[in-house]
Amino acid sequence: MRHLYRCPIRWADLDMLGHVNNVIYVDYLQEARIDMLRTHAPEIRATDVGEGLVVVRHEVQFVAPLMFRAEPVSIECWVTEIRAGSFTMAYEVFDETATGRRVYLRATTVLAPFVFAEERPRRLRPDEKDVLRGFVEPSPLPPSVRMGEPKLLEAGHYPLHVRFSDVDAYGHVNNVKYFEYFQEARIAYITHVAHDGSDIGVQFVVAQCDVDYKTPILFRGEPYRVQSWVSHVGRSSFGMESIILDGDTVLSRARVVMVTFDRATQRSVPAPERVRALFQEQFEAAARA
């Protein structure tokens, strides 16, 4: 069984291409997830301050651009796996059309019950597992790709300042904000390595974004450190990985696949040779690090 959530689209959700920004989709998934758990599994107490859920991992596959419109977009969510101390939820963001289902995004989220008052995880209770079993279906995504070893490049350094509004009711930075942090670091890195320091002159869209959550990020005055590096260079796609650090401690990791994009045709296109050369240079620098 799947839970259906009708998600409104806000004008502020759009990026410079007129698409719903990749970060915003994760906010939509959070809304759908909470709606499902509050409707069908209130025992898990997903929105309580004292006890609830933490996100362990997101895997997000962006299938097609979603534009602004007045009517909501549909999100189905369900459970793919139940373990002793965690479970995985899956999502599909779509519209039903005359010719069939038009899918914009597929994703999964690993969630773990957590006692915030004691700052510790806990196991799922038998009654919670019983509720979740009613929503079990296969995963919509292939097996995940393992992330590589971190690379500490000077060009990939970005100081991350946490805003007070980034913090949720539990005192931690909300899981959605991590996608925003990695996006900021990624854009700063690409802008920095463009040799004249200006815009790189080509459009990118995000095709895949996976984020691992290791240790909660808290609000503080001094910045955290983000390190990014190029992990793959293709004909029209580029892989980039990033880590968020507090000293030598890795707080979170991300792997992103970007695709060069033609705004006029709304399709992927081969990257210009100068752009491939730029990313290849960074890929080789990471390999030497």
Describe this structure in words.
By secondary structure, the chain is α+β, with helices and mostly antiparallel strands. It folds into two domains: 1-144, Roll (Thiol Ester Dehydrase, Chain A); 147-289, Roll (Thiol Ester Dehydrase, Chain A). Helices cover 21% and strands 37% of the residues. Strands 1, 2, 3, 4, 5, 6, 7, 8, 9, 10, 11 and 12 form a twelve-stranded antiparallel beta sheet that branches. Strand 5 (100-115) and strand 6 form a beta hairpin. Helix 1 runs antiparallel to helix 3 (175-193). The longest helix is centred in the N-terminal third of the chain and has 19 residues, at 22-40. The radius of gyration is 19 Å and the shape is globular. The N and C termini lie far apart (48 Å). The model has no long low-confidence stretch (mean pLDDT 91).
Structural descriptors:
Thiol Ester Dehydrase, Chain A; 289 residues; 21% helix; 2 domains; 12-stranded antiparallel sheet; alpha+beta; 4 helices; globular
| Poorly predicted residue ranges | none
- What is the averaged pLDDT score? 91
* Class by alpha and beta content: alpha+beta
Q: What is the CATH third-level topology name of the largest domain?
A: Thiol Ester Dehydrase, Chain A
Shape: globular
CATH class placement of the largest domain: Alpha Beta
Order of helices and strands: EHEEEEEHEHEEEEEH
Number of strands: 12
Strand content: 35-45%
The level of helicity is 10-25%
CATH architecture of the largest domain: Roll
Radius of gyration: 19 Å
Pfam families: 4HBT_2 (PF13279)
Organism: Nocardioides dubius
Protein name: Acyl-CoA thioesterase
